[in-house]
Amino acid sequence: MQCRAACGACCIAPSIARPFYGMPEGKPAGVSCVHLSEDYRCQLFGDPRRPALCERFQAEHEVCGDNRSEALAKLSELEVLSLPD
After folding, report:
1. Alpha-helical regions (H) of 2-65
2. Rounded distance, CA 29 to CA 13, Å?
3. 81: Cα separation from own chain's centroid
4. Across the strands, what pairs with 16?
5. I need a surface site. Which of 7, 21, 46, 51 has the fewest CB within 10 A?
């Protein structure tokens, strides 16, 4: 699956625990990354400062659904399910 244009769900829903360029405290779940543009595109795409987590993310229907709303819901649910007990 190709990444959906104007989505940005993967830059909003998940948390990033480690500090990275522009977000020295990491990124909480549900908060837009500071590098997400107004048209929901990653401004660090292809940049070595992009977090490894983001670099490894692969758009798949099971995670991204059929539209942006589904992607946000599915990624948010995965975030909750992956929380430590």
Report:
1. 52-56, 61-64
2. 5
3. 16
4. 27
5. 46
Using the structure block, give the residue that is written with the tokens 């589904």: 70
Tokens of 28: 């909480």
Burial of 64 (0-12, 13-18, 19+ CB in 10 A): buried
Quick: pLDDT tens for 31-48: 999 999 999 999 999 999
| Residue 42 near residue 51 (C-beta atoms within 8 A) | no
* pLDDT score of 84 more than 90: no
How far apart (Å, rounded) are the C-alpha atoms in residues 72 and 81?
14
* Confidence (pTM): 0.92
Is the CB of residue 66 less than 8 Å from the CB of residue 51? Answer: no
